Amino acid sequence: MVATPIGNARDITLRTLDILAAADVLAAEDTRSLRRLMEIHGVALGDRRVLPYHDHNGPKMRPVILKALMEGKSVAYASEAGTPLVSDPGYALVRDAAAGGHAVTAAPGASAALAALVVAGLPSDRFTFAGFAPSGATTRRAFYRGLAELTGSLIVYETPNRLADSLEAAAEGLGADRPAVICRELTKRFEEVRRDTLGALLDQVPDMTLKGEVVLVIGPAPDRETSEADIEAAMAEAMQSLRLKEAAAEVAERLGIPKREAYAMGLKLKGD
């Protein structure tokens, strides 16, 4: 599984060039982009074909690729841009190849999700890659509401023509004051990174030149001080099914408070 540059052709790795030169069979999400990449770096295709493998022909092409593996041939599969299986159709191919007893290895490299996280300047110790936001308005709103309880930063892929709708849904579901970053044309000549809140970025969209894939990185929700009422409500709920000590431990971990505070509230509730 071969990662390819997301923009700048020089981001390819030396190991990837070796693999592309030596593989018995080449497969690609976009055959034209792989051919062009190999031409740029002087990797001869020779008499090898580049087999197309994408969302629309997976069931038809997987048996062809698996047959090559059964014959003992090495196969290099390249994504159109970035790392295979990250919003890419290679998952079923890896699954079936592994199920057939074939060794599957990765030639790591560029990834738009990680490149955006690196330049965003948002917390990166914990993050969720959510893929592309749905295209429908109702499902898009539900998508962002479903991410509201997650801790850490969120990474979402979006198309230029849907960016405004996505920002609007994100502001509604996550809060307009959430810090966010729009990353566009990463590693390319006109790379652009805009940092602000979701609400402010939504206001800026009409002034932006949008083309190519967009990565939206959304920071964690601002910390909210836990009130006595929060602890009381959490303990009252937990004590319905747990003993006092267990409830205190569960609530303390969930709310990020000392266990003694949760335990004291539990005693107060039992006394009441």
Automatic annotation (TrEMBL):
It comes from the Bacteria. Gene3D superfamilies: Cobalt-precorrin-4 Transmethylase, Domain 1 (3.40.1010.10), Methyltransferase, Cobalt-precorrin-4 Transmethylase, Domain 2 (3.30.950.10). Residues 226-270 form the RsmI HTH domain. GO terms for biological process: methylation; rRNA processing. Residues 2-201 form the Tetrapyrrole methylase domain. Its EC number is 2.1.1.198. Keywords: Cytoplasm, Methyltransferase, rRNA processing, S-adenosyl-L-methionine, Transferase. One of its GO terms (molecular function) is methyltransferase activity. The keyword Protein biosynthesis does not apply. It holds the Pfam family RsmI_C. InterPro entries: 4pyrrol_Mease, 4pyrrol_Methylase_sf, 4pyrrole_Mease_sub1, 4pyrrole_Mease_sub2, rRNA_ssu_MeTfrase_I, RsmI_HTH. This is 16S rRNA (Cytidine(1402)-2'-O)-methyltransferase. It comes from Kangsaoukella pontilimi. The lineage of its organism: Bacteria, Pseudomonadati, Pseudomonadota, Alphaproteobacteria, Rhodobacterales.
